[in-house]
Design a protein that fits this description.
The structure is a single chain. The protein is α+β, with helices and mostly antiparallel strands and 165 residues long. It has a single domain (18-163), classed as HIT family, subunit A (2-Layer Sandwich). Helix content is 28%, strand content 16%. The radius of gyration is 15 Å and the shape is globular. Bound molecules: zinc ion.
Length: 165
């Protein structure tokens, strides 16, 4: 059986617990969009491209609030989190011809969260046969498209999708 969730541990090197100001998501939330790979912003959540992706187009939807538990989020924020991810699956199908997705949360370090203090929803596009290349032991993964290209492609796709709603 394929263990699709296990490789999701982000390869960020997370040192000792950092003060809130140094949280990478909080930093991205308030910083320059392109520099932080932020793809889109909503009222309660924003989306950024994973700089250490497990597949092309691997992005994360993140609430602005620095919380670790789903129950810490107001219902409308929970809703926006999922709605944003849903919209992204549509955009990624249209922009990158994705054939499937893994969408999920790793809550807590025990569940494989690289950044456990600030929850984030992963959206990982999948294509038939891509598991052939899944890194099992943390080896170098060759991506067919670089991050900048993916960023531009997805941001354009998102803007376009907003215009057609
Ligand atoms: Zn944070």
């Amino acid at each position: 059986m394929e263990r699709l969730w296990a490789p999701w541990r982000m390869r960020y090197v997370v040192g000792p617990k950092k003060p809130r100001g140094e949280c990478v998501f909080c930093s991205a939330a308030g910083g320059d969009d392109a520099a932080a790979c932020v793809l889109a912003r909503g009222p309660h959540c924003f989306t950024l491209l994973n700089a250490y992706p497990y597949n092309n187009g691997h992005l994360m939807v993140v609430p602005y609030e620095h919380v670790s538990e789903l129950t810490d989020l107001a219902l409308e924020v929970q809703a926006e989190l999922l709605q944003t991810a849903a919209q992204w699956t549509k955009v990624i199908v249209e922009s990158m011809n994705a054939q499937g997705f893994n969408v999920g949360l790793n809550l807590g370090a025990a569940a494989g969260a690289g950044i456990a203090d600030h929850l984030h929803l992963h959206v990982v596009p999948r294509w038939h046969g891509d598991t052939n290349f899944m890194p099992v032991t943390g080896g170098v993964r060759v991506m067919p498209e670089n991050l900048d290209e993916t960023y531009e492609r997805l941001r354009a796709g998102w803007v376009e999708s907003q215009g057609t709603q």
